[in-house]
Write a structure and sequence with these properties.
The complex is a heterodimer of chains A (about 180) and B (about 70).
Chain A lengths: L6 E4 L1 E3 L12 E3 L1 E8 L2 E9 L6 E3 L1 H7 L9 E5 L2 E14 L10 E10 L8 E3 L1 H5 L2 E6 L4 E6 L2 H6 L16
Chain B lengths: L15 H4 L3 E5 L2 E6 L2 H10 L6 E4 L13
Antiparallel strand pairs in B: 1-2, 1-3
Classes of the chains: A mainly beta (about 180), B alpha+beta (about 70).
Chain lengths: ~180, ~70
């Protein structure tokens, strides 16, 4: 029987710089282990869950390790941290499993992932609104230092279908 | 409740003393390989036939704190 939702992942603790004035509290990140699957197979990385990012983004070495050929793809400019970066998007499979690591419970979905050409983020990958938050209902608690993942319609079941800003509801992820 | 945080919280901070500035491959909670270059790390774990790893970077000791992926 598949592991039922919610899948609850503990935050990941990062070290703070030694001269940081914030060393009185831990630096905790909402992150989950995911697989990014290309022609060469899966690459397992720790991915930062970033509700403010619109895309799923990953480091260039992940593309190479997964065997993704980006050479014929167009550069898309994205502004990050005040700078403009070139990113190439391609469709790959993403894989997420429950926090207890049961391999037969893996969820696989397709997403457009933007790979940076000449820049390596501190995290190997970032999970944003399109490609992750449209696949799951994600709840994060700073108080509990936990992140929960549920199926995409859990939000609707909890709060009702939200009003859409336009004449048509936004497209929902379907499998 | 099933599948809810049964693993202990993973701490990159706990790895800094040994792996500061490195990319590390983790399997079953243990570091199985580490390298300054993620490309070399992937090549190494592939050469050694290691699968099922999760790769993450351990910041150097004086590395400024990042916001998001900045």
């Amino acid at each position: 029987m598949p592991t039922p939702f919610p899948w609850v992942f503990p935050y990941v603790q990062e070290p703070r710089p030694k001269d940081s004035p914030f060393r009185d509290r831990p630096l905790m990140r909402p992150a989950v282990p995911i697989g990014i699957v290309g022609p060469s197979g899966p690459v397992g990385v720790a991915a930062l869950v970033d509700s403010g990012a619109d895309h799923v983004l990953a480091a260039p070495w992940v593309a190479q390790a997964a065997g993704c050929d980006l050479s014929a793809l167009a550069d898309i400019e994205i502004r990050i941290g005040g700078g403009v970066r070139a990113v190439r998007f391609t469709t790959v499979e993403l894989v997420l499993g429950p926090p207890d690591g049961a391999d037969d419970d893996l969820i696989v979905w397709e997403a457009d992932v933007g790979f940076f050409d000449a820049w390596e983020p501190a995290w190997p990958a970032v999970l944003g609104q399109t490609g992750f938050f449209d696949r799951f209902t994600v709840t994060m608690s700073r108080q509990a230092m936990l992140l929960s993942v549920e199926d995409w319609d859990a939000f609707d079941e909890r709060f009702g279908v939200p009003a859409a800003p336009g004449a048509e509801p936004p497209p929902r992820f379907t499998l | 409740m099933t599948g809810t945080g049964r693993r202990p919280p993973f701490s990159i901070a706990a790895l800094q003393a040994e792996y500061a500035g490195c990319w590390v491959a983790i399997a079953d909670g243990d570091v199985v390989d580490a390298n300054q270059s993620p490309y070399d790390l992937v090549a190494s774990i592939q050469q050694r036939g290691i699968t099922g790893t999760t790769i993450v970077r351990v910041p150097a000791e004086n590395e400024p704190e990042t916001v998001g992926i900045g």
